[in-house]
Amino acid sequence: MAIPRVRIIAEYSDRVRAILRTAGELSITAGVIMMLFCAYLLWGTSAYTARQQLLLQQQLAEEAAEAAKKAQDVAERDKKPEIPKIELGGALALLRIPSLGRDYRYAVVEGVDTEHLKRGPGHYPGTAMPGQLGNFVVSGHRTTYSAPFNRIDELQRGDDIVVEAAEARYTYRVTSQDIVQPDETEVVAPVPGKPDITPTRSFITLLTCHPEYSAAQRLIVYGVLRETQERKV
Amino acid sequence: MYGWIWRKLPGATTTARVVAASVLAAVTAAVLWYAAFPLLEPAVPLDEVTVRK
């Protein structure tokens, strides 16, 4: 007995419908997961940095208090203050940029590997320390991990970049901005952009990615030391 | 797919199944957020901020 033609078509279209429905559901699920991943990149990663920054800033405050206590000690006062060796991943100074908000403060960590930059803006090992002759180079995330350098493109010539180290507060003045290719390492030279020259001044260079959400180029903000205030005892 | 999951969910009443479905969704989201995404994140070249040769 032959199966009626209508039933064959009905069964066939049921199967097609089931396949299409499953494909549609899988696509929607994939889309939702991708949106969740974007949310994670933007906000989930920041939670990690926020926790780390809390610890690092606490560590900096303790070190500053210790340095002040030492400075009061008569026996210690005449000794030349030794600058503690900073380990990779440790906090070395507090970065403040008043024009990006009164609460803008990040503990700068030593190192620019992925694990270091997750904790906060990272200082290039081997480049000058804050206030020293040469170039104090700091890289920071622009979109993920609290995005500390998200708005450094708004910095204008003359804006202050304040670096609070244990021994002093250094105020740098923004001089210019630039957008460079990722392999232009001249920007981290002791005199930014001029690798062959010996520095006679203290510079600061901030690096982040450009354009936002991209790894195509780098945004660079240059500054020069304007003022040094020794920590009050 | 979702129809199949719905039929497999425990619970006799619709309310119980909605609760079970919510728990399942929350667990899935948590596993993604806290286990899968952190592993996946370094592979995304979204925020490269250093210069190197």
Layout of secondary structure:
The complex is a heterodimer of chains A (233) and B (53).
Chain A: H1 5-72, H2 74-77, E1 91-96, E2 105-110, H3 114-117, E3 122-123, E4 134-139, E5 160-164, E6 168-180, E7 202-210, E8 217-230
Parallel strand pairs in A: 2-3, 4-7
Antiparallel strand pairs in A: 1-2, 1-5, 3-4, 5-6, 6-8, 7-8
Chain B: H1 2-8, H2 14-40
Molecular structure report:
- The complex is a heterodimer of chains A (233) and B (53).
- Chain A is α+β, with helices and mostly antiparallel strands and 233 residues long.
- Chain A has one domain: Sortase, Chain: A.
- Chain A has helices at residues 5-72, 74-77, 114-117, and strands at residues 91-96, 105-110, 122-123, 134-139, 160-164, 168-180, 202-210, 217-230.
- Chain A has an 8-stranded mixed β-barrel.
- In chain A, strand 2 (105-110), helix 3 (114-117) and strand 3 form a beta-alpha-beta unit.
- The longest helix of chain A has 68 residues, at 5-72.
- Chain A is elongated, with a radius of gyration of 26 Å.
- Chain B is mostly helical and 53 residues long.
- Chain B has one domain (2-42).
- Chain B has helices at 2-8, 14-40.
- The mean pLDDT of chain B is 91.
- Classes of the chains: A alpha+beta (233), B mainly alpha (53).
- Chain A binds chain B through residues 21-22, 25-26, 29, 33, 36-37, 40-41, 44-45, 112, 114, 117, 124, 139-145, 149, 180, 182-185, 187-188, 207-209, 213-215, 218, and chain B through 1-3, 29, 32-33, 37, 40-42, 44-53.
- Chain A: It comes from Nonomuraea longicatena.
- Chain A: The chain crosses the membrane at residues 23-43.
